[in-house]
Design goal:
A six-stranded mixed beta sheet has the order 2-10-9-4-5-6, with no helix packed on it. Strands 1-3-8-7 form a four-stranded antiparallel beta sheet, with no helix packed on it. The protein is an all-beta fold. The protein has strands at about 5, 10, 20-25, 35-40, 45-50, 60, 70-75, 80-85, 90-100, 110-115. The N and C termini lie far apart (about 40 Å). The protein is about 0% helix and about 45% strand. The protein is built from no helices and ten strands.
């Protein structure tokens, strides 16, 4: 059974940083690209980042480029999303996904709230 468990979210002030983690199990992790997406209630899913099975290639959406970074540790079956210089529009539930951009196999999500 595929399991994707996100963690690391929370409340942060504008300009602050968070590191999201996604612990994966139930599949051969290094064989799959992984992705991060986010969603605000009432709006569609917005894809943020992808990373190849061996750590490359990576892709970061233009709207967070230069502020967010995606990495993975295949020894820990974990993918990370570093969120720096957060803005209030970064408030959302963040999901990791198995298989990369557009995948429907996603975790339960982790809330990030950017507010002063």
């Amino acid at each position: 059974e595929v399991q994707l468990v996100e963690s690391g979210g929370g409340l942060v002030q504008p300009g602050g940083s968070l590191r999201l983690s996604c612990a994966a199990s139930g599949f051969r992790f290094e064989s799959y690209a992984m992705a991060w997406a986010r969603q605000v209630p009432g709006k569609g899913l917005e894809w943020v980042s992808t990373i190849g099975g061996r750590g490359n290639p990576t892709w970061i959406a233009d709207f967070v480029k230069g502020r967010f970074t995606v990495t993975r540790d295949n020894t820990k079956n974990t993918v990370y999303l570093q969120l720096n210089s957060l803005k209030t529009d970064g408030t959302a539930s963040y999901y990791c996904a198995k298989g990369g951009y557009g995948s429907a196999e996603r975790g339960q999500g982790n809330q990030v709230t950017v507010s002063s």
